[in-house]
Design a protein that fits this description.
The chain is an alpha/beta fold and 315 residues long. It has helices at residues 16-27, 47-57, 73-83, 103-110, 128-146, 178-184, 209-226, 231-260, 268-299, and strands at residues 3-9, 34-40, 62-67, 88-91, 116-120, 158-161, 189-193, 308-313.
């Protein structure tokens, strides 16, 4: 299989027939074998019945993965990757705000030698205050913290070569950070403007509380991409710095005692120096413990982050 289009679905019963028609029209003239993997993330509005009907009507192209309950968009994307057969994987939202007609353009860009092509909703059709402003702030923060500069991390429409998105697990809201993971293995990344439409069916599943999750996940991603394999470098570096500060403080107190006869033990700097040294030593111990945990993680059997009720394949 050349191409897999992964689409997480959660309560999108009205948009699904139009979505599949649009995906089929977009890929009709693409000179690649392709499949569409719909991951039903515990929908309760009849979406699964529509997806089962799509399998019957288009068995050559449709695969449906049904979750037992709602696990979230990131987990649905992870399941789509696990069940995809394509060498190239494209992610797409089910609400039709992303336009499937942009997929051929993204694939052409991928053929120019890039490993990741990221969509940029340059003219975004969402609420400026509650959706666009927090998104701009999050994109600026992620770009500057990770060093992977993209205008639109939140755009689901992205294309990846399979080899740059395997080997790591996705949790929380971490699907938006997949370009960061890909960059950590040397992927060539480019961003292209894509169309964005106002929502026609249903309502958005996300609010402002998602911003807090993104910030917390950003901290986790930075650790996983920079220090996960050798956490002692992070914890040990912080610990040695604190110990050094405590040592400098003690040296200052000793020199001051010798120079002007000021009691070391009565100085607040003495307590601060001792606390810095103790905290630094604890940080080093945490780094050693983290090293053991990392080795246990890598050597243990991988456990999936989702449970699948069934997989429907027409071929």
């Amino acid at each position: 299989m050349d191409l897999s289009v992964v689409i997480p679905v959660y309560n999108e019963v009205d948009s699904l027939p139009f979505l599949h028609q649009a995906v089929g029209a977009a890929l009709k003239d693409v000179q690649r074998s392709w499949e569409v993997i719909y991951v039903d993330d515990g929908s309760r509005d009849g979406s699964m019945a529509v997806l089962a009907d799509l399998v019957d009507k288009d068995p050559a192209h449709v695969v449906v993965v049904e979750f037992r309950r709602n696990f979230g968009q990131t987990t649905a994307i992870a399941a789509g990757i696990d069940h995809a057969s394509g060498d190239v994987i494209v992610f797409l939202d089910a609400d039709m705000q992303n336009d499937p007609a942009d997929i051929p353009m993204i694939l052409e860009k991928l053929d120019q030698g890039y490993d990741v092509v990221s969509g940029w909703r340059k003219d975004r059709e969402d609420n400026a205050l509650t959706r666009n402003l927090p998104s701009h702030m999050a994109n600026w923060l992620i770009s500057n913290v990770t060093g992977v500069h993209l205008h639109d991390y939140g755009c689901t429409l992205k294309a990846y070569r399979r080899e740059v998105i395997t080997g790591f697990k996705l949790y929380g809201e971490m699907h938006r950070f997949i370009p960061v993971y890909a960059n950590s293995v040397g992927a060539k990344i480019v961003e292209v403007p894509v169309q964005h439409h106002a929502r026609k069916f249903g309502r958005s599943k996300y609010g402002l509380e998602r911003t807090v999750k993104v910030v917390l996940d950003l901290m986790a991603v930075q650790f996983l991409t920079r220090a996960a394999n050798k956490p002692i470098y992070l914890f040990g570096g912080v610990g040695l710095s604190l110990v050094a500060l405590g040592f400098v403080g003690m040296i200052f107190l000793v020199l001051r005692k010798l120079a002007v006869q000021i009691n070391i033990l009565t100085s607040p700097l003495f307590i601060i120096s001792v606390l810095l040294a103790m905290t630094g030593f604890q940080a080093i111990l945490m780094g050693l413990i983290a090293e053991l945990l990392v080795r246990t993680y890598h050597e243990s059997q991988q456990k999936p982050t989702y449970t699948v009720r069934r997989v429907l394949r027409g071929r």
